[in-house]
Amino acid sequence: MRTPTGIFLFLLLSCSGKENNAKDIKVLARVGERTLTEESVVSFGASKVAPEQKTLVSIENWINQSLLLSEAKKEGFESDLTLIKKRDFYYDQLIVSSFIENHISSRVKVSKEDIRLYYKENKDGFIRSLDEVQIEQYIMKSEKEARKLTSSFESKKNTNTDGYSILSVNQKTIKKGVFSKNIDTELFNIRKRVVGPVFLGGNICVLKILNRYKKGSYRGLAEVHDEVYQRLYKTKTTIERGLLLDSLRKTVNIFINPEYQ
């Protein structure tokens, strides 16, 4: 169960409102008497921005949130019974979720053999429904740097990327049709080894092609390892949760109105 974002916002705003007199605490922002410190900052809606901008965006979002929260309190929303009930409900969920996670984490184990057997028995469930391409995505500092890296990759040399202004690199597998038609056409062109520069989500990128896979081929165990692990973990967690509830039901008297049995 996911922890509601509202709880984190509530807890952070509550904690950051207290003044800390310690001289080594770095204050990032203030709104009235409410203070945001470097120690308490989280990525307020900044998960999709560049790493070097996260703190700035988080501060701006925290200021906006604090202003709105202050105004809402002035208008009496802090005492709204419906909101209080929702808060208590989410808080109860958070407690239960933490308890279950703590109880189950030591009891649920997924071994490599479990994963191998599940893959073997369910291999037909891992057939590609579309053509796919495995790429390394390089997010570049500038279009000029992207062009230099693209040319280097196209030269078919074993390129050392240390000399380029690369912000981040990640590897992913892309299905045909995910990107725009122009990028898609280049990615699935069998003669292409690199595509770029291209603009994706506001970033300047170079896409290095590692492998291409045809529709109807099997996804390998290495590729689906994490997916299989999550499936098995979820199944085992559900079973363990059922066993926990069964044991708890034996320790307390439970009444259910006969009308609803």
Mean pLDDT: 85
Number of strands: 6
Could you estimate the helical fraction of the residues in percent? Answer: 40-55%
How many discrete structural domains? 3
Sketch the topology as an H/E string, one letter per element: HEEHHHEHEHEEH
Could you list the spans in which at least 5 consecutive residues all have pLDDT below 50?
Answer: 1-5
Classify the secondary structure makeup into a structural class.
alpha+beta
Shape: flat
Report, as a whole number of angstroms, the end-to-end distance: 27 Å
Please work out how many helical segments DSSP would assign.
7
The radius of gyration computed from the alpha-carbon positions, rounded to a whole number of angstroms, is: 26 Å
Strand order of the largest sheet: 4-3-6-5
Topology:
Blueprint: H1 5-16, E1 27-31, E2 34-37, H2 54-74, H3 81-105, H4 112-121, E3 132-140, H5 143-154, E4 166-175, H6 181-187, E5 194-200, E6 203-213, H7 221-249
Antiparallel strand pairs: 1-2, 3-4, 3-6, 5-6
Helix pairs in contact: 4-7
